[in-house]
Specification:
The protein is of the alpha+beta class. It has one domain. It is about 15% helix and about 20% strand. It is built from 2 helices and 6 strands. Strands 1-2 form a two-stranded antiparallel sheet. A two-stranded antiparallel ribbon has the order 3-6. A two-stranded antiparallel sheet has the order 4-5.
């Protein structure tokens, strides 16, 4: 069997999805997205209510949208994934 023109390694068998197996993951849920900002290339999920007494927000960025693997606009191709693990 081939995918993207590359045959599977000898001995590998494609079994398909198994019960309970996820196709996509949610990194930031809709509830968390309201309190999530991107800061220096990282996602910061701020608490809904600050418990440390400071009510100001240290970040000025706009809140994010929910982040899911199936709606990520920067999907990697099979070739890009292979180059990361090679």
């Amino acid at each position: 069997m081939e995918r993207d023109g590359q045959p599977y390694a000898p001995g590998h068998v494609v079994t398909g999805l198994r019960p309970g197996e996820r196709l996509h993951e949610t990194l930031i849920s809709e509830d968390e997205a309201r309190h999530t900002v991107e800061q220096n290339g990282r996602y910061v999920i701020l608490p809904e209510n600050a418990t440390w007494g400071d009510t100001t927000r240290p970040y000025s960025a706009m809140p994010m949208q929910p982040y899911r693997s199936d709606t990520n606009p920067q999907q990697l191709t099979v070739a890009q994934l292979r180059s990361l693990i090679a």
